[in-house]
Every structure is written in structure tokens, then in C-alpha cells.
Design brief:
The structure is a homodimer of 333-residue chains. The first copy, chain A, has 333 residues and is α/β, with parallel strands linked by helices. Chain A has two domains: 150 residues, Medium-chain alcohol dehydrogenases, catalytic domain (Quinone Oxidoreductase, Chain A, domain 1, Alpha-Beta Complex); 151 residues, NAD(P)-binding Rossmann-like Domain (Rossmann fold). Chain A is built from nine helices and 14 strands. In chain A, the strands form three sheets. In chain A, strands 3, 4, 5, 6, 13 and 14 form a six-stranded mixed β-sheet that branches. In chain A, strands 9-8-7-10-11-12 form a six-stranded parallel β-sheet, sandwiched between helices. Chain A has a two-stranded antiparallel sheet with strand order 1-2. In chain A, helix 2 packs across helix 3 and helix 2 packs across helix 8. The longest helix of chain A is centred in the middle third of the chain and has 14 residues. Chain A is globular. The relative contact order of chain A is 0.16. Chains A and B meet through strand 11, helix 7 and strand 12 of A and helix 7 and strand 12 of B.
Chain lengths: 333, 333
């Protein structure tokens, strides 16, 4: 075991966009677990748009502060355990933060199943897959034959949402940035159509791709794309509110989309915000269904693995700029 | 029967706020019913914020156009019937528009029960009462002990929403314009607290009135009040989206409330838009329950009756400015 613990610290709370200097790398001693604790070694850190939102203020977790080790969920291995519930070698998903080693209370952790490739525990069998599954099926309530639109469709969650919608018999339209991603959605992931939000005329393009309107919109981005979808919703449509990545990397948003709440009323829409832990009670059943789809080849898993703890800042900055396809993670050890 | 039919016509589609010259009064011959039609005499015209929204574009009904007789729901009496389903003297609720007489298809109309005072058919047993009932109970899903906030709380719908929330054991907070209305809510209608949105510091006042946050917000107004409530919602709160009167009388809204969709996600809110006809299947049960509350004195009905067809434009302009308390209607005959 190494004697030092490399850490990436939030140097200051960002004003405007993240830059590499928002972070700095430091070293400390490997921490010692107390009673009931485990010492974890970070294997793969999950990169998520929400990481940026945590810098904006309290969300479903406390806000980050300058000087904190940057927070982040990771696949980690138990190195030392002072708890009967976990043993060295066990793998867990934990908020280790951006560092080699972390000490956490064992009682909040659950041993993950042995599974290959192990990265799937962060993508399709992790937060991304479960977020897609519950957000689409519970909040979106899609019915066969309906039109489902998802934004950030080439991302970790969106790429799974669209494929589950297809499995459920829906017409599926992805919104993504750039022709290459749009092409991938249709050619490789089986979307019926894709709309490039970086091209002109988003609202018109969306209308063209959804001539009968949108029954279910799975929103990962907020902002102008949310607004364009809102105007194209069908009566009694549902919007699953998963995130607002367009609003995270910069100052707090000055205002919300046009049409709220007027269109919610006249179209009788239901909007539901969620985070994945709201559905913890149904997690095992969801994982079993996801596993069946992956094994049958109906659900393709895209991952984007970058090596090296020191590359975490650039990996997050790039994710917020939309450079990844599928689930981005950084291999630390 | 009169030989002429007084009509108030939409002179032009308004730019900005309604003024008396948005309308003009004219006369035509009393129309003649065809096969399956009835000739209706308008008794009381219902004034509703939605009347203004109909001038902005298609909603749940087609947009109004210049030269149209102004649309409006009314309590009306059958004068002549070419249908076996209705007889002279029967009373119905119908979109007669702002005129003395109208011909409509009988098959879309339902005979109303005999009931005194007859005006209750437009208030507590009409669209206002049913909107309050279904919006609060179905979309809001309040539980005893929760905090329910309603905007336009002294209006036709809001005054009933707050009282039903009290009946259901909720802490009830009304938002209204001016000290007189706020006073009425607390002293006469049994609200636990009232917040004056015209005074400074709405968001702070709301926090003071709802120290634990808002579980259910019944939104009649949209705009800044919606935004203030959104920021004060509790996790897993519900917003019943009933209307956006703050946005109707003027140009189309430039943008939506801050916090959409970010706060919907982090607070895991559910927003649901509705119109009363979505719940037609449950109408009789709702009316029976409303009737029980009115007869027991638990639900007080406030009405604001103005006499004279010629006063319809001023009555609507005043309603949009918030001058009414309770259900506003104009007695035509």
C-alpha cells in the first residue's frame, strides 16, 4: 500500500465556468479507519454533471466548500475493515471523493456483486443505468407507441434512456450536440431519430422529428432545450426532470424556460423531479431487468474510461462541455 | 322574448393590457335553432382569468379572433328546444359567449339541478368549485398536517382551495394582493396565514408563514409568485398548476420562473397541470362532497355579482387586476 494519499482539492468555488485552476492536487497521509470504519482504495471515479451542481449550493447533499477534497462517487475496494460487514477485497460504491484513499463508515456501504467488466458497476448497473431506468419508467410512464425524447442522449444516462424506450416499444428521439453524436444514436444505439441542438432551428427540427408531438421528455439539460421540448409536448405528456446540465457550469441561471407554468396548464403536463435514491426499494428488480437486456444484446453499454487521478479535473470540464459519449469515468488504480 | 340579441364582440386582439375599447357592443337578430339545437337565454356570465388567455392563442380551446362574439361560459336557460333531451325552462352551463341569446347543440349540454341560490351553479358547484376540488385533492394530494399554499387566494378558486385544505386538516396559507384581502382570508375564511404579494419581500414573508416549507402549492398565477413558492417548496412537494393569471393580460411572457427545472430535480417536486374537464368522470362525487361542506357551514361561498351585460368588459378587466373577492359573474337577465 502506498504511503501517501493523492488528493484533488477544490481550490475555490468557481465563478462562471470551471477551469483546471479551480482544482489543485495535494498529498496527505493515508487515513486510519476508526471503529466501524473501512479504509477504501479508489478504483474508478464516476464523472457526473451533478458534480458541478454541488458547487452551486445545497442540493440533495450539502454544498461543497473551498478546500474540500472534491466529492465524487467511485467504485472502491476495501483495504482495511473495522466492521464485520465488509472484508478486505470487497468492492463498494462510495463517495470517496477525488483521492486514492478514503475512510468511510461501513454501515452506509453495500458490497457490490462480482461482475465483469467491473466498469459496468459505474455505468449500466450504477447510478447512470438506474437513473435512466427509474426516471424513464417511473416518472415518464411511457406506453408502447408513444414518442419519447431524451436530451444529452449520447451521455451516460441518455444513451440508456433511449434504448430502454425502444425496448418498451416507443418511438425514440435523441437530442445531442453535433452530427457525430446524432449519427451514433441512430446507427449504433437504435434511436429512430436524432436532433442536433447545436444546429439552427432546434424547435423546428424537433417538430420535424416528432410530428405528433412528444409524449415523454426525459430532461437532462434544462434551459433552451427544455423550453423547445415543452412547446412540443402533447396534451397529458410527462416530463422526467433528471438534471439541468446546461445550467451548472456558470453563474446561477437568470431565468427559467418560457412557457412555465402556462404550457403545463394548457397541455396538462406532469413534471416530476427525481434522484435515483428515491427508488432504492426497487433497485434489485431494476438491476435484474437491466442485466437481462444487456445480456440479450438489446441494451448496448457505452463507456468512456480515462486513466489517471490527475486527469479528473479535465475529465469533468470536458464532460460539462459534452465531449464524452456514454459513461465517463477515471481509472485511479 | 326580445327581438334583438345584444352581443359584445372582441373588436381586436389586444396588444398588452385589455381596455374597454378591446370590446364593442353590437346587436343582431335572435338566432334560430336548427335540428338538434337549443336556443339559450344567458342568465349569468362567468368571468374567468382564462377568458384573457383565450386571446393569446390556442389553449385547450381554439384561440379567439377579432370580430368574434366574446367567448364565455354562462348559466343559461333553454328558451326553445329542437332536442328531446332538453325542454324550455331547463338550465344549463354553456359557452353562450357574451350575448343575450345563443344557439348550441343540445347533445353537448347537461340539464343542471334546481338549486338555490342559482349563482352557486357558477361558483362552488361550477367550474370554480370543481377546479379547486380536483386540483387540490387530485393534483396536490395534500395530507393532514401538511402546509398548503394557494395564490389568488381571495379569488373564486383560491378561496375554495384554502377552505378545502383546512377541511382536510392542512395548515393553509393564502397569497393575495393587499391587506384587505389578506385580512378576509384569515378572519372570514379560516386560513392560518396570509401573505400580501404586493408588499415587499414576498419570498421572505412566505418563509415566515411556512417555516417548514411548502408541501403543496396550488398555483393560479405563475410568474414571480410561482418562483417564490418554488424556492420554498419542501422535498417531494407537489405543485398543482391551475393557471397563470399574472401572465395573461399583456404580452406573452418573456421567460419563466428561475429554478425550473433545477429545483424540480433537487427537491424532487411533482408539477401537474390540469383543467377541470380532465376529471369529468368524478364530477358527481365531487359535487356531493362540496354540497355537504357548504350545507354544514364548513365551506363559505363568496360571490361577486355585477348586473348588466354592458358591464362585462369592465368586469373582466377588473378581475384581471384582482379587484374581485370570490366568484365574479355578470347577471345578464
Amino acid at each position: 500500500m502506498a504511503q501517501t494519499n493523492r488528493q484533488i482539492v477544490l481550490d475555490h468555488l468557481p465563478q462562471g465556468r470551471l477551469t483546471p485552476s479551480t482544482f489543485r492536487q495535494t498529498e496527505s497521509a493515508v487515513p486510519t479507519p476508526g471503529e466501524g470504519d473501512v479504509l477504501l482504495r479508489t478504483l474508478y471515479v464516476s464523472l457526473d454533471a451533478a458534480n458541478r451542481a454541488w458547487m452551486q449550493g445545497a442540493t440533495y447533499r450539502a454544498a461543497l466548500a473551498a478546500g474540500d477534497v472534491m466529492a465524487g462517487g467511485a467504485l472502491a475496494e476495501v483495504v482495511q475493515s473495522n466492521s464485520p460487514d465488509l472484508a478486505p477485497g470487497d468492492r463498494v460504491f462510495a463517495d470517496t471523493g477525488w483521492q486514492d484513499y478514503a475512510v468511510l463508515k461501513a454501515k452506509h456501504l453495500h458490497k457490490l456483486p462480482a461482475l465483469e467488466p467491473v466498469t459496468h458497476l459505474l455505468s449500466v448497473y450504477g447510478v447512470a443505468g438506474l437513473t435512466a431506468y427509474f426516471g424513464l419508467l417511473e416518472c415518464g410512464q411511457p406506453r408502447a407507441g408513444e414518442t419519447v425524447v431524451v436530451s444529452a442522449a449520447a451521455g451516460s444516462v441518455g444513451s440508456i434512456v433511449g434504448q430502454i424506450a425502444k425496448i418498451k416499444g416507443c418511438r425514440t428521439v435523441g437530442i445531442a450536440g453535433g452530427a457525430a453524436k446524432c449519427d451514433l444514436l441512430v446507427r449504433e444505439l437504435g434511436f429512430d431519430a436524432a436532433v442536433d441542438y447545436k444546429a439552427d432551428g432546434l424547435r423546428r427540427a424537433l417538430r420535424g422529428a416528432c410530428p405528433d408531438g412528444i409524449d415523454v421528455y426525459f430532461d437532462n439539460v434544462g434551459g433552451d432545450v427544455f423550453e423547445a421540448c415543452l412547446f412540443n409536448m402533447k396534451t397529458h405528456g410527462r416530463i422526467a426532470c433528471c438534471g439541468a446540465v446546461s445550467q451548472y457550469d456558470g453563474d446561477a441561471p437568470a431565468h427559467g424556460p418560457r412557457g412555465v407554468p402556462g404550457l403545463i396548464v394548457t397541455k396538462r403536463l406532469t413534471l416530476r423531479g427525481f434522484i435515483v435514491s428515491d427508488f432504492d426499494a426497487h433497485r434489485d428488480a431494476a438491476l435484474a431487468e437491466l442485466k437481462g437486456w444487456v445480456e440479450s444484446g438489446q441494451l448496448k453499454v457505452r463507456e468512456d474510461v480515462i486513466a489517471g487521478l490527475e486527469n479528473l479535473p479535465a475529465a469533468l470540464i470536458g464532460l460539462l462541455a459534452g465531449e464524452n459519449i456514454g459513461k465517463r469515468m477515471v481509472k485511479v488504480a
